[in-house]
Amino acid sequence: MNYTGLYNPFKLNRPLSDDDIKYQLRQDFSGLGASGAVALDDTVVIKMNSTYLELVDKYYSNRGMFEFFTIVMFSSFFLTPVSVICLLFSNPMSRPDDLIELFLLIIAIILPLIMARWFLGFLRKSFFTWTHYPVRLNRKTQMVHIFKVGGTILSVPWNDVFFTRGRAGYGSMPEWSIDGHILADDGKTVIDTFSLGFSSTRRELVKNWAFVRSYMEVDDCLEDLADIIVLCPPVAEKRENYLFGLQYMMRIESRIMWFITALMFPLHLLGSITRFVVMRTCKIPRWSEEVEADCVVDANDPINVSAANNPRHIWRYMLANQPLDEYNALYDRQINAVERLRAKVQAAKNQRAE
């Protein structure tokens, strides 16, 4: 999972890197991702209407599981020196006899406490913060509104953002995200950065970017995008409930993964309990009056995608257990929408090239 920006801050006040430029995602239809609009539903859309598209953050997906392992590590390191100290007071025979034993004893107490402090830093950025950090893209005013990790709100014109693919890790399978850089007046220095709600492979993100760019740049595409979205996290102005959190953590795309899901269920269960506690300690993000004024939705807007439109049996969709006829109908709906969208993107691309 790409946690850059949450547990480790973005690198700011720096020039654009070679990778930033190499993997740039352009708002127009040139460069990476220009060859078609394969838009995927990645269960990150909170709301979509004719005015704005609102997404969860890239950290939302794995809330709970990371915190569970962090609590385990923190408890292990914290309890180690506590146990040593208790042993010293309860058993005089265990006390050090020389300077070497005293030195080793001090190390055995201090090092675990340092590690416990390190893991505590992660927990402080998860508990008692916000349930999620949404990004709202306004199609009509061409503005991007970002609810930042610190709780502040940043608003910037869509075309002023330098979008690129950011990498977390340098192994054989690094995790990538769609990062938006805010540049200084020189057009080269990064002064702020945010991420859209996608974390995936480098190639897959191009498809996710196609979805966002189509919403902001392509005329007459909203119905097609609406047909692609299947499930929206129910976090608009409220907290998700426990059952949704568990199902969201267990979601799969194919029945082939049922066996792995069954093996992972104990971990998912523990992670879902932690996720529930995390969400209950966190505040619900609220947009400012200025953002709400910029994002007024028409009362008779025909496009109204939200959690209210989620499948009736969410668990069937999450566990790839839909009846065959229902699955085929959904698949045909999405494929047809993507094909229509491809044609509209190509038309928009040709029009701008003239």
From TrEMBL:
Give residue ranges for domain DUF6708. 115-297
Supply the alphabetized keyword list: Coiled coil, Membrane, Transmembrane, Transmembrane helix
Q: Which residues cross the membrane?
A: 68-90, 102-120, 256-278
| Coiled-coil ranges (or none) | 324-351
Source domain of life = Bacteria
Which Pfam families does the record cross-reference, listed alphabetically?
DUF6708 (PF20455)
> What's the protein here called?
DUF6708 domain-containing protein
Gene source species: Rouxiella aceris
Print the organism lineage: Bacteria, Pseudomonadati, Pseudomonadota, Gammaproteobacteria, Enterobacterales
